[in-house]
Write the structure tokens for this entry.
Amino acid sequence: MQHKPARLLRLVDGNLPSGLGLRIAIATRDFRHVSEPFGRAVLLAVYDVSDRASELVSVIEFEPLLQRCNAANDNPDNCDGRVGSRLDALPGCHILVARQIGDVAAAAAMKRHIHPIELSRDEPIAALIARCQTMLSSNPPPWLRRAMAGMAMPADDGPEVDAAQALQPLSAAAAGIATVH
């Protein structure tokens, strides 16, 4: 079974004005809410976010899945490569946000230096972007600094805002997935 994106739409501009840049992939069904599990999402919206602006830079569409992938499937071979191909479609992303992110997908994302964030409920994309902008305009937490290594960082002119404050409330699950409640 082919797991590569069915379609990829890249928007021409993709250049934010001055400021710290962050690329966020969001699993969505309507482009207004974070609403889908990563492994079953048909659409991934990719945004570039700075402390002052944000823009949609690409949309990745996958074929709908006919079955869930787990050990109980009659043909688990149909599921091989799904996580890797989805992550391959996210070059340059720093954060992956979805309603659910499985342990295997979270570990694979972290190996690619993509920070997985799992939300416990649907959330407006605009609100998520606003919280990221707040985090970027202050002193970003260490995990974000590592994710954005090589990019210009703001001057150390204030107290550090950790992820728990910026994406309230945020707790790290055992698999290393950040979960927003």
Q: What stands out?
A: The first strand starts at residue 7 and ends at 10. Residues 150-181 have pLDDT under 50 and may be disordered. Residues 7-68+79-180 form a domain with the Nucleotidyltransferase; domain 5 fold (CATH 3.30.420.130). The CA atoms of residues 29 and 43 lie 6 Å apart.
